[in-house]
Amino acid sequence: MSSTALTSDSTADRIRRRGLMLVLSSPSGAGKTTISRRLLEQNPDVAMSVSVTTRQKRPGEVHGRDYFFIDPAEFNLMVNRGQLLEYAKVFDNYYGTPREAVEQSLRGGHDVLFDIDWQGTQQLRETARTDLVSVFILPPSAHELERRLTTRAQDSAEEIARRMAKANDEMSHWSEYDYVIVNHDIDDSVIAIQGILDTERLKRERQVGLSEFVRGLQAGF
Ligand SMILES: Nc1ncnc2c1ncn2[C@@H]1O[C@H](COP(=O)(O)OP(=O)(O)OP(=O)(O)O)[C@@H](O)[C@H]1O
Ligand SMILES: Nc1nc2c(ncn2[C@@H]2O[C@H](COP(=O)(O)O)[C@@H](O)[C@H]2O)c(=O)[nH]1
């Protein structure tokens, strides 16, 4: 191997990638959580942003894994201290993204996955547009959405009715997103979003050190 080739190889090793923020939004019950879990299983290097919320814990939910369940006073404190990257009121409860964990993952070159609503996505778009990749997930039909909310068996009939009534509001923001998928089949949806992630990772502007690598490469010709 020539010394030029050695130099080029070691420079190529120095190409690093800036982490991206992959946001999934949808009306409640369309499948964000299910898709997120699958994506995290097949991408152990991706970090999930665990939100804080003032809503009550559902059966089976774990503090620190599904959410950090906090009271409204604590939530206000986090807002006032600037500890949330974004926050919103959704279905009468407050939800927000803790800033520090996300910034730490991005600095380390890790991608971060978010399950947040359209209000939060709008806020991230204003503050982090170049890092943001947003995907809107549509249900195949209103009937199927209601079936999914009901068979999930996590919310009362009143809560399900409230979420169905709000579905149109959330869906009216579909065209603000970079990508839109209809979640018919879970396997197909996961494959589609994995494709988005793989493609976005290759974007020129996300590859740190690329200019230096190309300069070194050109010097060898
Ligand atoms: N493609 C699919 N086909 C059939 N069922 C699905 C599909 N995707 C998700 N589900 C089911 O629909 C229910 C709701 O899914 P999930 O909890 O992932 O929705 P969500 O968008 O995260 O809801 P929320 O916004 O309320 O957190 C779950 O029981 C899940 O197993
Ligand atoms: N703006 C934000 N929205 C969030 C956040 N965490 C979750 N959510 C959204 O809330 C609804 C309801 O969630 P559920 O767990 O009560 O069913 C759903 O649309 C989530 O995407 C957040 O940090 N910020």
TrEMBL record:
<dbReference type="GO" id="GO:0005524">
    <property type="term" value="F:ATP binding"/>
</dbReference>
<comment type="similarity">
    <text>Belongs to the guanylate kinase family.</text>
</comment>
<keyword id="KW-0418">Kinase</keyword>
<feature type="binding site">
    <location>
        <begin position="26"/>
        <end position="33"/>
    </location>
    <ligand>
        <name>ATP</name>
    </ligand>
</feature>
<dbReference type="Pfam" id="PF00625">
    <property type="entry name" value="Guanylate_kin"/>
</dbReference>
<dbReference type="GO" id="GO:0005829">
    <property type="term" value="C:cytosol"/>
</dbReference>
<feature type="domain" description="Guanylate kinase-like">
    <location>
        <begin position="19"/>
        <end position="198"/>
    </location>
</feature>
<protein>
    <recommendedName>
        <fullName>Guanylate kinase</fullName>
        <ecNumber>2.7.4.8</ecNumber>
    </recommendedName>
</protein>
<dbReference type="InterPro" id="IPR020590">
    <property type="entry name" value="Guanylate_kinase_CS"/>
</dbReference>
<dbReference type="InterPro" id="IPR008144">
    <property type="entry name" value="Guanylate_kin-like_dom"/>
</dbReference>
<keyword id="KW-0067">ATP-binding</keyword>
<dbReference type="InterPro" id="IPR017665">
    <property type="entry name" value="Guanylate_kinase"/>
</dbReference>
<dbReference type="InterPro" id="IPR008145">
    <property type="entry name" value="GK/Ca_channel_bsu"/>
</dbReference>
<dbReference type="GO" id="GO:0004385">
    <property type="term" value="F:GMP kinase activity"/>
</dbReference>
<dbReference type="InterPro" id="IPR027417">
    <property type="entry name" value="P-loop_NTPase"/>
</dbReference>
<keyword id="KW-0963">Cytoplasm</keyword>
<comment type="function">
    <text>Essential for recycling GMP and indirectly, cGMP.</text>
</comment>
<keyword id="KW-0547">Nucleotide-binding</keyword>
<keyword id="KW-0808">Transferase</keyword>
